[in-house]
Each structure stands twice: as structure tokens, then as C-alpha cells.
Design goal:
The structure holds two protein chains of two kinds. Chain A is an all-alpha fold. Chain A has nine helices and no strands. In chain A, helix 2 packs antiparallel against helix 3. The longest helix of chain A is centred in the first third of the chain and has 23 residues, at 30-52. In chain B, 72% of the residues lie in helices and 0% in strands. By secondary structure, chain B is an all-alpha fold. The chains are: A mainly alpha, B mainly alpha. At the A-B interface, helix 2, helix 3, helix 6, helix 7 and helix 9 of A face helix 1, helix 3 and helix 4 of B.
């Protein structure tokens, strides 16, 4: 089974064109930089949104990311590694923002006083039918992503939502390939456990 | 392959991240093992659910407008002139080049100075040796003359030069063929 590309209105970028744009943008050509922005901004915006769960913050951080990328473009040694490099910068901004406020995620094995799984942001398990009526499935997906611990969330989003390769994810997160592979597997299992009741075939 | 080994690679298989050989092994196991096949279906179903229900937020034009405003300022502030442009655009590269150039210049200067000092040293050594040779030669001639004159009865006294170990020459000559009494 092969990776599917999420239809975000952007086809994958032609690498030859991208290299040309980057080369020109390095010299200060704004028109070329806008082409780079158009190719990647939506992906970056939605990645950040999955991580911070706020449209306003996601837009703000996307803006900061692309300003920083323009400033640091001269330091990019290998133009073919632009996408993981771009996501790495975006990720750094996300974590800087995270450090500035209290965490919203709950550890995957956290227990409350009664030894039950700690209360989640939104409890959907008591009455999934009502949850289904009350919330759109998209919110369900976002909530499941929010439930994941930070280190699982980022690899899950980059893999399952952004459809980046494991190698690219390892470069972005500065982790080993086996570590990334294991965490993606655990995150997928966890999400699957909670969306099971929403699946047509459980 | 056992179920535990298969389970570790199920997600990677789903994502197309396995080598063809490994993917074939997983496929073969899934064909034989109902439990793993069921697990695989569950993962595939939840992946499909995520794909079809993932909400994407739209990219508003205002974001690019704000980015453009900020980067335009940076471009406008970009200095003219070859060297200052390099220093502004690639400060790390420029710093590295400058540091390397400085080290090279210092190294060459130091080497040249060393060579010059060595040359000077050789010159002084040569002068010293030449002077010393001349001195020794003079002394040697003086000794020879003094020796010859003492044998011939001339009795010329020559001053010994800086040799604290040499016995002073006597003023009287010594003629071994004449007795002292004559």
C-alpha cells in the first residue's frame, strides 16, 4: 500500500523549478519567494494548526515561519532538502510558543485518582452517537490529535496528515528513523483505539 | 516471521515505507495470519477515516501580504556593494572567509618573519665564525712566531690572547745548544 497525497489543492512541487526559485529567492527575488510560499504555505499552516489547535495562532506562526525562512535562506546548503528544513523551522516556532504556555496534551498513560484514564479535552466515549451529532467528524479527528502527547502528535501529523516520508520526519524532528517509525506506530494505534466507534467497520 | 515482528512493521507497510522485500514478507504473513490481517484492516480503516475527515484551514491572502511587507523591508535594507552585500546576506560565510583570510595572512607574515630572523641569525653566526677563525688564526700565527723566536733567541714576547690556561712565555730565550753559564 503506498502513501496517498492529501488533496490540498497543491500538486507536489517540481524539484527543478523549486531549485530555480530558491536560487533566485536567495538573491532577494520576491517573485520567486512568493512561488515557494504558494507551494508550501498551506501545508505548513495546517501542520501548525494540528499542533496548536488554534487558527489564529497557526496563521501567526505561519507568517513568522516564512519571514524567518526568507531571512535564513542563504544558510540552506542543499536546496533539495528545502521541505524538511522549512518544516523544521515551523516546528521550532511551534515549540517556542508551546514553552510559553501550559501544555494542553495529556500523557498517553496518565491516570487520575481513581486509576482511570485522565479526563480528556472532550469525552466522546460515553455517548458516541451524541458526539457524532453534536460535533463534525473533523472536530473528532482534531480532538484525537490533541489527545496525543507532544512527541507522538508531531510525528503522527507529519505522517498521517502531511504524508511526509519517515526519512523527512526524522530530519525535521532530529530523531532516528527507528524511533520515528515506532512512535508513528504507537500514535496510530492510539488514534485508532479512540476513533474505532466512528468507523463503519470496527 | 511471527506476529510480533509483523505488528512492528504494519504502519510502515501501510505508509509504503518498507523495502520491496520486507513488504513482500509482510504481505505473505498477512495472507496467512487472520489476526494480523484484522489489525491491518483496522489501521487502514482509521487512516482512511482520518484522510476523509481531516479539516484543512484555508490559507488567507492576508498571511502572504504580511510576510511580503516584512521581507520587502529586509530586501530594501540590503546594502549595495559586493562585499557589504555578502556580509549582510551570508554573514556566516563572510565571517568564515574573513577569519580564514586573516589566519592565512598571519601565517604568511609569521613565516616570512621567521625566515628573516633565521637569515639574520645565519648572518650573525657567519660573522662570528669568521671573526673567531681570524682570531684563532692570528693566535696560531702568534704562537708559531713566539715558538720560533724563542728557539732562535729573539726573545720577542708576544701576548697570549685570552687563553687563561696557557703558561706565559718567558722573556729570556732559550738556546738548548748554549749553556747557561756562557
Amino acid at each position: 500500500m503506498s502513501k496517498k497525497t492529501l488533496d490540498s489543492g497543491e500538486a507536489s512541487v517540481d524539484q527543478t523549478l523549486l531549485r530555480q526559485w530558491i536560487k533566485k529567492a536567495k538573491s532577494g527575488d520576491l517573485e520567486s519567494y512568493q512561488k515557494i510560499y504558494d507551494a508550501f504555505a498551506r501545508k505548513v499552516l495546517n501542520f501548525i494548526y494540528r499542533m496548536v489547535n488554534s487558527v489564529e495562532e497557526a496563521e501567526d506562526l505561519t507568517q513568522e515561519t516564512f519571514v524567518a525562512v526568507f531571512k535564513k535562506l542563504g544558510s540552506l546548503k542543499d536546496n533539495d532538502k528545502f521541505e524538511p528544513w522549512l518544516f523544521r523551522i515551523a516546528r521550532n516556532f511551534v515549540y517556542q510558543r508551546y514553552r510559553a504556555r501550559s501544555p494542553v496534551s495529556v500523557p498517553i498513560d496518565a491516570l487520575d485518582e481513581d486509576g482511570q484514564p485522565a479526563t480528556q479535552l472532550i469525552d466522546q466515549r460515553k455517548n458516541p452517537d451524541e458526539a457524532f451529532e453534536a460535533q463534525e467528524l473533523e472536530d473528532v479527528v482534531q480532538n484525537e490529535i490533541n489527545r496525543l502527547p507532544e512527541k507522538y502528535r508531531e510525528v503522527f501529523v507529519l505522517s498521517a496528515i502531511q504524508h511526509l516520508s519517515y526519512q523527512e520526519i526524522a530530519e525535521i524532528t532530529d530523531r532516528s528513523l527507528p524511533s520515528v517509525k515506532t512512535d508513528i506506530y504507537r500514535a496510530r494505534l492510539e488514534v485508532r483505539k479512540h476513533v474505532k466507534e466512528y468507523l463503519k467497520s470496527a | 516471521m511471527n506476529c510480533e515482528q509483523c505488528a512492528d512493521d504494519l504502519t510502515a507497510y501501510l505508509d509504503g515505507e518498507l523495502t520491496p522485500r520486507r513488504a513482500a514478507e509482510i504481505r505473505a504473513h498477512l495472507n496467512e495470519c487472520g489476526s494480523c490481517a484484522s489489525e491491518m484492516r483496522g489501521l487502514a480503516d482509521s487512516a482512511a477515516f482520518l484522510e476523509s475527515n481531516t479539516k484543512e484551514i484555508p490559507l488567507r491572502p492576508e498571511i502572504w501580504n504580511n510576510v511580503k511587507a516584512q521581507v520587502s523591508t529586509m530586501v530594501a535594507a540590503q546594502p549595495a556593494g559586493f562585499f557589504s552585500f555578502w556580509l549582510w546576506r551570508w554573514p556566516r560565510v563572510a565571517t568564515t572567509v574573513l577569519a580564514t583570510a586573516s589566519v592565512l595572512v598571519l601565517g604568511v607574515w609569521g613565516y616570512l618573519n621567521y625566515e628573516e630572523s633565521q637569515e639574520n641569525l645565519r648572518h650573525y653566526m657567519n660573522e662570528y665564525v669568521t671573526a673567531r677563525d681570524a682570531q684563532l688564526q692570528k693566535q696560531g700565527m702568534a704562537n708559531a712566531l713566539a715558538s720560533a723566536s724563542s728557539n732562535a733567541g729573539v726573545g720577542i714576547k708576544f701576548e697570549r690572547m685570552d687563553n687563561p690556561f696557557a703558561e706565559p712565555l718567558t722573556d729570556t730565550y732559550h738556546n738548548p745548544f748554549r749553556s747557561e753559564d756562557e
